Amino acid sequence: MRRSAPQESLSVNNAPPLQRAVLWALGWIERYRFFKFGIVGASGTVVNLAVLYVGHEYIFNVIESSYKRPYFSLALAIFLATINNFTWNRLWTWRDRVKELEADVAMQPVGLRVLSMEFGQYATVAIPGIVTQFALTMLLSGSMYYLIANLLSIVVFSVISFLANDRWTFRRR
Questions:
Q1: Model-level pTM greater than 0.85?
Q2: What are phi and psi of 60, to 5 degrees?
Q3: Residue 54: which domain range?
């Protein structure tokens, strides 16, 4: 029984070169997809931080009590960053899977039903991250600069968000 694990790895290593190449390519594509997800996430982080700063310093500066400002600016920042990330992940990171889904359902490209379903799933995956980001930002901003607190809270949920979107929102059909 103990020999089965080494034998399995040997059988994979002894696989035909084409099979090894295909497996390597599939692994590389998945890593590459995570790289794309990271770039999209970085753009969303820029959107988030920029909107948070502009909202806090300019848009909501008329709010007299400064402790309430982050609530409004952070809500707007998270909302716009979520829309940004969904759009770019759909158009770029998981473009191949989106096209497969649209072909399977025999709908127009970017059918409203498909788009609504995907955004609903994306938002469902994002909700724990949004709650985490909001709570951590508010918690940490008491002891550090609010933009750094926000950045740290974004990093906390990134990997989980990628895996959930890869396996559910934009899964292979």
A1: no
A2: -105, 20
A3: 40-169
